[in-house]
Amino acid sequence: MISHVFFVLSIVGAAVALYTPVGHHHTSLQGRDDSISTTNLLASCGDRGALDPSIPFADSCTLINIQNNPDSRLIAVLGDPQFNCGGGSDGITVQLGGPSTLSLSSSFTESTNVNLGGLGIGGGLADSLPLFVTIQQTMSYTLEPGRQAVLLAAVLHHSETGNVQANYGTRVFGHFVWITGGTLTRLIPTTDAMFFIHETACGTDATDFGNNS
User: Fold this and answer.
1) How far apart are CA 130 and CA 4, in angstroms?
2) How far apart are CA 89 and CA 147, in angstroms?
């Protein structure tokens, strides 16, 4: 006798579960009172500190149902600010810039105490792009008395949003696969950078991008 395998969806507030019972000849949609929490699902992708000890680590975690978002440029500070704030009357030449290492950053639609930056979630751009990049630039610059400056980089980031699917080696609340109801958004830095000098008055925050003193 040929047995048939059907995917059965369990929909709960926090996540959707997939499992494959053998010998059932229908597909059903059923609600569950017991399910993995969003925190435990995400934490099982790599955050032991936030994971309930009764929940195993997932064998793999993948971003699915991916939507690509518009690219954006985020500001990174290169090196330390330089100052001509000692009360002198002459301009001075300073060296601005240095290296800055940028990494993938993530946010989730639901509140959670999971360290999203430490999770191992594959799929999408994370499979084809480096998760860390180093931006480096230096330049000489003349600061007049009472002025300070810092070198900034507007770094191009790709962005994508999707649900997180966790696959387990043993059943968790009756299922091998759980999918978040909420979505994860990732920003992935590139080496495409535009550099500019941000000069302001002494006594103000040199790295405050809104500071136009």
Assistant:
1) 41
2) 11
CA nearest neighbour of 14 among 32, 38, 33? 38
Parallel/antiparallel/unpaired status of strands 29-31 and 8-11: parallel
Digit-coded pLDDT (tens) for 38-95: 999 999 999 999 999 999 999 999 999 999 999 999 999 999 999 999 988 999 999 9
Distance from C-alpha of 18 to C-alpha of 62, rounded to nearest angstrom: 14
The DSSP bridge partners found for residue 75 are 154
What's the CA gap between 43 and 55, in Å, rounded? 9
Least confident window among 9-23, 70-84, 90-104, 167-181: 9-23
Strands (E) located in 118-201: 132-143, 147-172, 175-180, 184-201
